[in-house]
């Protein structure tokens, strides 16, 4: 912070920089919503980042991936040995995709967004952004999402796991 303040002439704290970053990220997200993006369906990482993509890649690290199927997914060694490589790829991909969805759920909740990833008018006002047109645009999108039933958490939660909130429209509370 010492260098930041020296260069800019400001007198700000670490918390001020974090707030500026949050404001910037929410503003960018709101602009993406305005442009027809900035929703859960747009927050996706490349297939390549989800794990082994080809059968050759799986085979090259077979022991590692088989161990993940057994230890992380709870499959029996016997079942894993019976599966084809393409079946194993599919199971790993589906597991990692679900883990990513649960991570997105947690991020959206923590940011004060809807389960579809839309910044809420309340969050924008809290951050000092109260442009009536922007707030109306976000409200309209959230209402559309509610009507289309897309404000639902993306992850599939197992026994002992819970989504970030079970309240409908938790962001309005």
Account of the protein in words:
It is a single chain. The chain has helices spanning 2-8, 14-34, 55-60, 62-71, 77-82, 85-111, 121-126, 132-147. The longest helix is centred in the middle third of the chain and has 27 residues, at 85-111. The two termini are 35 Å apart. It has one domain (13-172). By secondary structure, it is mainly alpha-helical. The protein has 8 helices and no strands.
Mean pLDDT equals 94
Write down the secondary-structure element order. HHHHHHHH
Structural class: mainly alpha
Could you describe the largest sheet, including whether it forms a barrel? none
Helix content: 55-70%
In angstroms, what is the radius of gyration? Answer: 21 Å
Question: What is this structure's SSE topology?
Answer:
Layout: H1 2-8, H2 14-34, H3 55-60, H4 62-71, H5 77-82, H6 85-111, H7 121-126, H8 132-147
